[in-house]
Amino acid sequence: MKNKENETYELYQVKDTPECRDLMFLSFDRLSKLGVPVRGIHYNKVYSGSLKSGEDLDSIYERFNLYHPDDFRGHSLSVSDVIVLHKDNRDQAYYVDSFEFRQVPEFFADNPLKKVEEMLEDDYGMIDGIINNGDRRKDDDEKKHSVMDKIQEKKKEAAVTENNAPKPKEAAKKQEAELS
After folding, report:
1. What distance in Å separates the CA atoms of residue 85 and residue 93, rounded to the nearest whole number?
2. The dihedral formed by the CA atoms of 24, 27, 32 and 38, expressed in degrees to the nearest 10
3. Which of 95, 34, 85 is nearest to 56 (CA)?
4. Nearest residue to 112 (alpha-carbon basis) of 35, 12, 176
């Protein structure tokens, strides 16, 4: 039998700030047409609780529209809100849409490609929005090699310059000849 003690949920509502206010109550399709991803940085957590046996997205939606708990401080659950379920060792975010719930994995990431990059990158230091931009250690070796090439090149340039520079005795004789 599975342990249900750690199964929880959280409710998020769009922040009431000038930057986010226009996102409130928009359908998922409208957000998509505007090119705006559903990101956690646009939301405030307004409630969290433990999942009761048999509870699902529909029952959470019903409770937070008809039977608000006393400690709930948000508005009734509505379009543009996000429900996050923490169960079976997974976190899943769902956008409350007009007639359904849309799964929105991008809700968790500041960088929308972060989860994908974590699976595909050769090097976790390269989580930067560009998928699989290579093994950094290989790049470091190339940089070291190119620096050595530059040093050798500068040594050669210095040797050529030194060979072409007049010798002190020659320079003195040249000056004497010019003065006479």
Report:
1. 6
2. 50
3. 85
4. 35
Chain mean position to CA 19:
19
CA proximity to 23, closest of 129, 130, 116, 104 = 104
Token pair for 171 = 């320079």
The amino acid present at 156, given as its one-letter code, is K
CA dist 44 and 10 (Å) reads: 10
- Give pLDDT tens digits for 35-68: 888 888 888 899 989 988 888 999 999 989 888 8
Q: Summarize pLDDT for 111-162 with one digit per residue, the tens.
A: 555 556 565 655 555 544 455 555 555 555 555 557 777 788 888 887 777 6
Tokens of 39: 């990101």
Tell me the H-state helices in the chain: 28-34, 57-66, 114-120, 136-164, 168-179
Q: Structure tokens of 133? A: 């931009």
List the 82-87 sheet strands across, edge first: 43-50, 8-14, 82-87, 90-96, 101-103
Angle at CA 87, nearest 5°, toward 83 and 93? 25
pTM: 0.59
18: burial class by Cβ within 10 Å (0-12, 13-18, 19+)?
exposed
